[in-house]
Amino acid sequence: MITIVTIGMNHETAPVELRERFVFADHNIDDVMNDIRAIKDIKESLLLSTCNRFEMLLTTEKGNDAKESVIGFLSRFSGIPTQELEPTLYVYENHEAIRHIFRVGASLDSMVVGEPQILGQVKDAYRTALEHKSSSVILNRLMHKTFALAKKIRTETDIADSPVSISFAAVELAKKIFGDLKGKKALLIGAGEMAELAATYLLSNQINRLLVANRTFAKAVELADQFRGTAISIDEIAQQLQEVDIVISSTASSEPVILERQVKDTMRARKNRPLFFIDIAVPRDVEPHVNRIENVFLYDIDDLKGIVDSNIDKRKKEAVKAERMVDEAVIKFTQWLKTLEVVPTIVALQDKCEKIRQIELKKTLSSLDGLSDSQKKDVENLTLSITKKILNNPILFLKRKQDRDSQNLYLDVARKLFDLDSNNDDSEPK
Known about the structure:
Elements: E1 3-10, H1 16-19, H2 29-37, E2 42-49, E3 53-60, H3 63-78, H4 82-85, E4 90-93, H5 95-105, H6 117-131, H7 137-156, H8 166-178, E5 185-189, H9 193-204, E6 209-213, H10 217-226, E7 230-232, H11 237-240, E8 246-249, H12 260-270, E9 275-279, E10 296-300, H13 310-367, H14 373-400, H15 407-417
Parallel strand pairs: 5-6, 5-8, 6-7, 8-9, 9-10
Antiparallel strand pairs: 1-3, 1-4, 2-3
Helix pairs in contact: 5-7, 5-13, 7-13, 8-9, 13-14
């Protein structure tokens, strides 16, 4: 029997210094996906890696063996001993795994409920799975149901009405620090979606000057033009740190882009004017020891948990409606999944009856001389009709039992009654 399993960690179960060991990027995703596909107990798989979570969604016929294999793989990949890794992981099976991915896609399981980025990240993960041919019938349907449900929840509830996101929280933190952002200078490092959101919120708070740095300079220029800012190269960051008040960093770099020694030199030139770093990247962009430097204040993504204010309460009220919609979707998907367990028996029953029909039809037609082609066709249609009518009630019975605890008993009886597991290919009546 197929089992759907989710194994993962998020901002609630593991700190950022552990989560950043499980960030997969373009340079290693092919190797990772190939390693996962090589795990023999896994039928289908999908890998979701974001700043707040790492998850593997899979299907298997050997649940316990697959879970052990995946945890072993994660331990080897991260270099974290299994006994240290396991307490940070959550493991869901079947309807709980289905519920989890529905909630993730609908942003009900996010640090900031209702944030829009996660659905795009789930879609990217699914696209990667398709490219590596690791998603098939079950995960394909599960993902499409996830996307449809997320769209329905956003349409029929107000869960995403208020501007609450990690980028929003970062700017709110800057406001708490300064009291007012008017006249302040900010530097965005990175030009992705989170940086774009941060730029939107900074401008709405009347920031005086906005600088944008990115490894791909063209992207920095594009984002800066969009928000009336100034693009700078990565090599200019050290110099600009002497001028800005706030640095919000959200790159996909695997190595820190702001170093402790770099900031020390900067603070001498700044004559110790306060400098605030808000690091919303995973892996982190700013070396943690930067926080030890006098008049330098560093906040990472985990520090933002307590920043989001009353909008969270509003979204939580809307989340109650969304959870009901999730419950309904879980029930429907679980019912569909159970039909998959009935299908092999129904197909085997149909195949056996068709084989018997063909044998008996051939025997009968060979003994009836002088029949025209039209008459032979009539005889064949008669046998088809009789076979379908005989099979109709058993098939309907098995389908009706798909969501009952006794399903396995009925399937077993059907297979024994019709001798569907026999290795004897002779379909002649005994």
